[in-house]
């Protein structure tokens, strides 16, 4: 566990998926399978999350239609863009436990920011669906807007520069080991969120 203590941070930086917002990708698979008239297992077997098209979509380099076309081909299902979008946005399964109480408490003591690998349709969806919760963040740094994604060094450097604080004074929360390693490599203090308790425990260690 990273060593953090009261006074050791001037800003908090949060990943969104599985740190602030709960994500259940099986909802997308079930939706697409329903529209395609096939078993969810057949889609799971073919779905490659971190494909080249997925990465390009997350940095805004290809359109939603192009990404859905790549899925139509790789998954072997002939469903419409609207049906893909329905499943794509079905993954948001509510707020992570306790986060709605933790964020406002933390925001009283220091600025909060979010840094997420995401895509335009998800941004459009969660910006509306979780507007109140996301309102605690001073700024959202989203891969589809900034054209950079975690865990790349350039992405962390961009966000640190935009926040305007030394990297070592920013505590970053993420659920993926590769992003934690990427953040630490660029000098941020990073907390690996394996369960909702990890956020609360880190805030307690910071005196929040």
TrEMBL record:
Pfam families associated with the record: Hydrolase
CDD domains (UniProt xref): HAD_sEH-N_like
Organism, as annotated: Bradyrhizobium nanningense
Superkingdom, taxonomy of origin: Bacteria
Protein's name in the database: Haloacid dehalogenase
């Amino acid at each position: 566990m990273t060593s953090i203590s009261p006074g050791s941070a001037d800003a908090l930086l949060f990943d969104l998926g599985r740190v602030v917002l709960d994500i259940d990708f099986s909802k997308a698979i079930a939706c697409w399978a329903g529209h395609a008239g096939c078993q969810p297992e057949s889609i799971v077997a073919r779905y490659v999350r971190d494909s080249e098209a997925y990465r390009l979509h997350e940095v805004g380099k290809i359109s939603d239609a192009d990404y859905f076309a790549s899925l139509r081909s790789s998954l072997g299902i002939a469903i419409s863009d609207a049906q893909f979008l329905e499943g794509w946005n079905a993954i948001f399964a509510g707020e992570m436990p306790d986060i709605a109480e933790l964020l406002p408490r933390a925001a009283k003591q220091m600025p909060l920011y979010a840094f997420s690998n995401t895509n335009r349709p998800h941004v459009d969806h969660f910006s509306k669906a979780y507007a109140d919760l996301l309102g605690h963040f001073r700024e959202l740094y989203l891969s589809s807007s900034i054209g950079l994604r975690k865990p790349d060094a350039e992405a962390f450097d961009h966000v640190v520069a935009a926040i305007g604080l030394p990297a070592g004074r920013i505590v970053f929360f993420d659920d993926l080991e590769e992003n934690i390693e990427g953040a630490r490599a660029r000098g941020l203090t990073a907390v690996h969120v394996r369960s909702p308790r990890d956020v609360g425990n880190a805030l307690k260690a910071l005196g929040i």
